[in-house]
Amino acid sequence: MSKKIVSVIGATGVQGGSVVDALLAEDHYTVRAITRNTQSDKAKALVARGVEVVQGDANDVASLTSAFAGSYAIYAITDFFEPFAKSGPEKATEVEYAQGVNMAKAASATSTLEHYIWSTLPDAKTASNGRFVVPHFEAKNRINRYIESDSALLAKTTFFWITFYAQNYIFPMYTPIYVPTAGKYIQIQSVPADTPVVSVGDARTNVGLFVKAILANPEKTVNGKYVLAKAEETTIGALLQRWASVTGNKAQYVQVEPEIFHEIWPMWAAEMGVMMQFWEWAREKSWSRPDLVTGEDLGVTGLAGIDEAFKTLKLF
304: closest CA among 201, 230, 185? Predict the structure, then answer.
């Protein structure tokens, strides 16, 4: 009997790459990577590992529909940060929404599809009555509503919340800055050090472990259920000290006014800065739903934590 096909968007990235790793290790499925460039070095490396690599463009519904043909399951993710870096948050939100809708339309047209795993994030705007609009949350939640409008697709959908990556330290507003005259690193943020951070830990390892469990437990995860990918909870200040301990450095957390933070990182302040302010405001409710499915519910094991991620993270 032929194996069921799981198609993975973003298979050369952190999330998609983790999904590919986990599914190849299990060997229960045929893994199909959907990529714009099937001749890239990363695509060729996937082929060498036994992955079926198929051309598909998130900006083209027809190419996605063709790429998804025969799929039992699809792992779907959009890339906010590529258009964000080029054109800022408003354009990136527009591009991400269009791509997410294209993926949903193509998935809905896939007659063999039984499970659609959509990588999304909490609705900060609704939760805060419009006070905090996080651009890379906002587009995904608009896509959520599009999926919810398609009852047939919704019945096959898992909404997958992936919490803070330890690897997010590569983003400039998180990367510690060395101050030679102080002999230590500092991190500048606009929120208090005790702001809660819920973390997936090492995303490159853990995302795939959650997806493997989601696929193994459809009775718990389809029909529009929300699954939370969490490895541990900490605070933004404690996270810096974890990095310092793992790397053998001294570090100090520096809180500044939001206006100062915006002057330092204007685009990022309107993105990650707003996200941090939402977490400070919402605290334990930042990743909360009454029907949330957890890793414990799905029997997820073998997670790699924040420290494991920091040990291999190259920032400088």
Answer: 201
- Is residue 273 within 8 A of residue 265, CB to CB? The reply is yes
Distance between CA 78 and CA 215 in Å, rounded? 20
Question: What tokens were used for 103?
Answer: 């993926």
DSSP 270: I
Tell whether the model's pLDDT for residue 1 goes beyond 80: no
pLDDT tens digits for 52-89?
A: 999 999 999 999 999 999 999 999 999 999 999 999 99
Angstrom CA distances, 311 to 68, 167, 221, 242, 252, stand at 37, 11, 33, 10, 19
Q: How far apart are the first and last CA of the chain?
A: 49
- pLDDT by residue (tens digit) across 90-109? 999 999 999 999 999 999 99
Distance CA 283, CA 127 (A): 12
> Among candidates 296, 297, 292, 152, which has minimal Cα distance to 223?
152
- Which domains are present in the chain? 4-312 (3.40.50.720)
DSSP SS3 for 55: strand
Q: Supply 280's token pair.
A: 């400070």
Q: Which residues of 218-233 are buried (b: 16+ CB within 10 A; e: fewer)?
A: eebbbebbbbbbbbbe
| CB-based contact 158:116 (threshold 8 Å) | yes
Neighbours of 267 (CB within 10 A): 17
Cβ atoms of 310 and 246 within 8 Å: the answer is yes
pLDDT tens, residue by residue, 119-169: 999 999 999 999 999 999 999 999 999 999 999 999 999 999 999 999 999
Q: Hey, what are 212's tokens? A: 């493997």
